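Whether sequence alone determines local backbone shape is best considered at the level of individual chains. We regard such an encoding as a compact summary of how the chain folds. The sequence in question and its structure tokens are set out directly beneath this paragraph.
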Amino acid sequence: MGRYSSRSDKFFTEEERERIRVTTIGVEARTIGEVATVVVDRSDDYPEAEVIGSIFVGSLVSLVLSTVFFHDSVWAFIPFAFLLSVPFRLIFRRMPALKVGLISKRKKDKAVWDRAIRTFYERGLYKTKKHTGVLFLLSLLERKVVVLADKGIHGKIPQGTLNGFADMVSKGVREGRSCDALCDAIIAVGNLLFEYYPITDADTDELPNGIMYEESSKTS
């Protein structure tokens, strides 16, 4: 799929999911590194965007109503604006895509990064024996990707390199080749892991190889 869908579990097709799973297994067959991919609907609920959006739209509609029916009466505008903000807030909550334009890039970047760190711990990537877990987090609402690695990897592979893999996936999504880009990035990470952390006889598979999904800013 080339576009971000509204639900994470619909983002990749069944065939694409299987291809990503097989790619992950192939990478982990050569290295003690553990790669996990998590797709989330959004990294935050952005409640402040709901408030701002509902007040703005409610006020705009109230202005039209008070102008047409009440001759610009401020006594009609204020209560209408207040009352209309309630249903519009529910609309913004039910349709998160409406909030995107009300959220700054800086806030979205921070939300996705924070979500990646939280997911890294909640999904147990920090528990691998050699601290060689690598997380690919795709956050759909924000259209952002984060690649995060455990401390056992950072000594050899800096975050700047991991950010390059994240950019590779983001670019692929924009170009309509999400699965290809993700698989290519997983293989590229795997090649580096193989260079520094080749497989050993004692290695075991410690994390799920398939894609994991989370529907909102709260983990499921």
